[in-house]
C-alpha cells in the first residue's frame, strides 16, 4: 500500500498504491542490446539502477526516427493520483540529459493508442523549460495506460537547451504511478467510497468529486437528481411532456413510468396516434362515422365536426333509433312498422301500417281518395251543367235515332206484308224441262192406260 516519490534519490513513503509496479510495458524505437539490458520493463521493476532506453531520435535528416514512446499497462482502469519519473543521469551531463528529455508529454488512456491521443487525458506537457531529472506530476484522473511521449520533428524550432538533431536517447530508470487499486474509492488511504451515481468507476482521488455523473444525476458528487422535466446525461435532455396523469418523465431514462397520456405513444411518448386511432397507447379505433370523414380526436375519440347522418353520441358510434338524419334530429314516421326507418334516408324499413303508403309512409290512402272525390265534386260544380246538357242532347239524339230506326223498320215491314202474302199463296207454274224423267202418257182408244213407266236408263 505504500507509494514512492523520488527526491534526489531519496524515497518518500506515501499511502497510495503503486499501480505500475512490475506491470507490462513496451517502447518504440527499441534499443537493441544484449540480454535486453534496456528493455521497457526496467522502468517499472522497482529498481532505480536499471533503466530503459530507446533508440536514437532526432530532427536531423540522417536520423530515421523522429518520435518515441513508452507505455505501461496497469491491467485495469484505476483512480490515479500522480506519475513520478526518475530520468537517467550521468555525472557532469545533467543539462545534456535534461535537454534530451525536454518537451515530453504524459497521457492517461483507456485504449493505449500511441498515435492518436484524441480520447486520452493529457496529464502533463513539458516546455519550454528543461525538466528536472526527478519529476513528479499529480494527475487527478483515471485510466489503464500511462504513456510517455516525445518527438524531434524536422523543421521545428525548439527552445534553447533542447537536444534536437541527433543523439536524443530517452532513458527512464523508474516510472511509478500512484493511485488506488480498489475501484470506487478515494482519499489519502483509499478508504472513502466514491459517490453512487458517478458515471465511471472512479472519482477524484482526493475530493471524491465526479468527473461525470450517470444519466439523471448532476452535481459535484452526482447526488442531485435532474429537475422535473429533464433527464439524461448532465440533465441536458428535456422530457416531451406527454406522460399519463401529468407526471414527469423518468429523470434517468426519459420514459414515462406510468405510460403515455391518451393520444400519444412511443418509448418516450413522443409520437401522436395515427389518424383513425385514439386513447391510451392508441389502442382504440375511431368510429369512422365523423362528418366528412374527418379524423376523431386522438385523445378522446370524439368527432369534433359532428357525426355523419344516421349516427349519434360524442363518438358517433351509435346508429339513430326511431330517427334519422344529422344528429338523429328527425323522427321516423309513426306510420312505419315498428316505427323503424333507415337512419340516413328516413325510409321505412319494414313497410307501412295499414292505410298508409309511400317511402316514408306519410301518405294516407283514405285522404287520397277523399281528395280525389272532392276534386271530382269540385270539377262537377263547374262543368256539370255543360256535361248534363251535352249528355241530355246525346241521350235525346240517341233516343231519336233509335226511334227512327225502329219506325223505319216498322214501315218497311207493313209495306212488305201483301208481297209476302202473295208469294206464300201464288199458284205453282210448271217449268218445262228438256230432259224430263217422265214419259208422256198417251191414252189411245185401244191401248192400255197403264203403261210401263220404267225410267230411261241413260238418266239413271
Q: Would you give an account of this structure?
A:
With 460 residues, the chain is an alpha+beta fold. It has 4 domains: 3-181, Sandwich (Jelly Rolls); 226-271, no CATH class; 273-319, no CATH class; 324-373, no CATH class. 15% of the residues lie in helices and 24% in strands. It has 3 helices and 26 strands. The chain has helices at residues 94-101, 365-415, 417-425, and strands at 3-7, 10-14, 17-18, 24-28, 52-53, 67-87, 105-109, 121-125, 134-151, 171-180, 185-186, 192-193, 217-218, 224-225, 230-231, 237-238, 264-265, 271-272, 277-278, 284-285, 311-312, 318-319, 323-324, 330-331, 356-357, 363-364. The strands form 10 sheets. Strands 3, 4, 5, 6, 7, 8, 9 and 10 form an 8-stranded antiparallel sheet that branches. A two-stranded antiparallel sheet has the order 1-2. A hairpin with a 5-residue loop joins strand 19 (277-278) and strand 20 (284-285). The longest helix has 51 residues, at 365-415. The protein is rod-shaped and about 175 Å long. The N and C termini lie far apart (178 Å).
Number of helices: 3
Question: How would you state the average pLDDT, rounded?
Answer: 82
Helix coverage percent: 10-25%
Q: What is the first-to-last residue Cα distance? A: 178 Å
Number of strands: 26
- Going by CATH, the homologous superfamily of the largest domain would be Galactose-binding domain-like
Q: What's the overall geometry?
A: rod-shaped
Order of helices and strands: EEEEEEHEEEEEEEEEEEEEEEEEEEEHH
- What name is given to the CATH topology of the largest domain? Jelly Rolls
* CATH hierarchy: architecture of the largest domain: Sandwich
**Unreliable residue stretches:** 1-13, 408-413, 415-460
| Radius of gyration, CA atoms, in whole angstroms | 67 Å
SS-based class:
alpha+beta
* CATH hierarchy, class of the largest domain: Mainly Beta
The total domain count is 4
Report the portion of residues in β strands.
Answer: 15-25%
Report on the biggest sheet.
8 strands, antiparallel
